Amino acid sequence: EYQKEFPDIPIGYSGHESGISISVAAVALGAKVIERHITLDKDAKGSDHEASLVHSELAELVRSIRLVERALGSGIKQMLPCEKACHDKLGKSVVAKVKIPKGTVLTLDMLAVKVAEPMGVPAEDIFQLVGKTVMEEVEEDESLLSEVVDSYGKKAKS
């Protein structure tokens, strides 16, 4: 909520709880600054020591925050090289939910997405197919191949 109210200001979290979980969760929710107290002895006199972190907890907090930051990524959706083999084998494509006769104009209710052989039009392109005409009959549960859909992937002339 603070980030919505103050979009140009980094938002932080000042933790006074036991452990590190809530501070790590704050980073996952967008906190850019974390403030935690540290202590040499949780049993020392004073109210902050019990909720403060000892050296090993501080080290674990930093490791956990860095892990969460990496897991959150950049926000840009892209396939990593290590994901390509799995995607090529298990990537989803568009299939016919029903038998589609030659010359039919595609509607969304005729289409489904699943792992299919052969791979056809990528699942993320399903909405680009709506309104296009199939140039060959497509059987139920069969992959929609790009060459079967008129004007798929072609830009409209202006």
What is shown here, in short?
Belongs to the type-III AFP family. This protein is 26% helix and 10% strand.
Overall description:
The chain is elongated and about 80 Å long. Helix 2 links the parallel strand 1 (12-14) and strand 2. With 158 residues, it is α+β, with helices and mostly antiparallel strands. The longest helix is centred in the middle third of the chain and has 18 residues, at 55-72. It has helices spanning 2-5, 21-28, 55-72, 84-90, 126-129; strands spanning 12-14, 33-35, 92-96, 111-115. Helix 2 runs parallel beside helix 3 (55-72). The strands form 2 sheets. It has a two-stranded parallel ribbon with strand order 1-2. A two-stranded antiparallel sheet has the order 3-4. Lowers the blood freezing point. Contributes to protect fish blood from freezing at subzero sea water temperatures. Binds to nascent ice crystals and prevents further growth. Residues 93-152 form the AFP-like domain. Its main location: secreted.
Describe the structure using short key phrases.
158 residues; alpha+beta; two-stranded parallel sheet; two-stranded antiparallel sheet
Number of helices: 5
The profile of the biggest β sheet is:
2 strands, parallel
Sheet with most strands: strand arrangement: 1-2
Oligomeric state as shown = single chain
What fraction of residues sit in β-strands? 5-15%
Measured as a percent range, the helix fraction is 25-40%
Regions with little confidence, pLDDT below 50 for 5+ residues: none
Termini distance? 44 Å
What best-fitting shape do the alpha-carbon axes yield? elongated
Q: How many extended strands?
A: 4
Class inferred from helices and paired strands? alpha+beta
Mean pLDDT across the residues is: 92
Radius of gyration: 26 Å
How are helices and strands ordered from N to C? HEHEHHEEH
Domain AFP-like: 93-152
Organism: Ameca splendens
Subcellular location: Secreted
Pfam family, one: NeuB
